[in-house]
Description:
- The protein has one domain.
- Helices cover 56% and strands 7% of the residues.
- The protein contains three helices and two strands, in the order E-E-H-H-H.
- Strands 1-2 form a two-stranded parallel sheet.
- The model has no long low-confidence stretch (mean pLDDT 90).
Amino acid sequence: xxxxxxVITSDAKFNGAxxxxxxxxxxxxxxxxxxxxxxxxxxxxxxxxxxxRKKLSTSARKTAEIYTYxxxxxxxxxxxKEALKxxx
Length: 88
């Protein structure tokens, strides 16, 4: 995302990316991450549509600016510290 490239991810709940990737806005979500045909269809869609690639890329870059590595690390540390306080 930070490279400004379209993202294909799974919308499976175990996938952290599914929390920030909005299908058709800043990436493409797969319904079934184990379905090779679905993945190949999405890749083909991106290859054939310059307009879609540009739209997803621009939105992905904007999203990445919100979720910087520094900000994400700080938020993670905050959660860890709160968990430690509760368990001590």
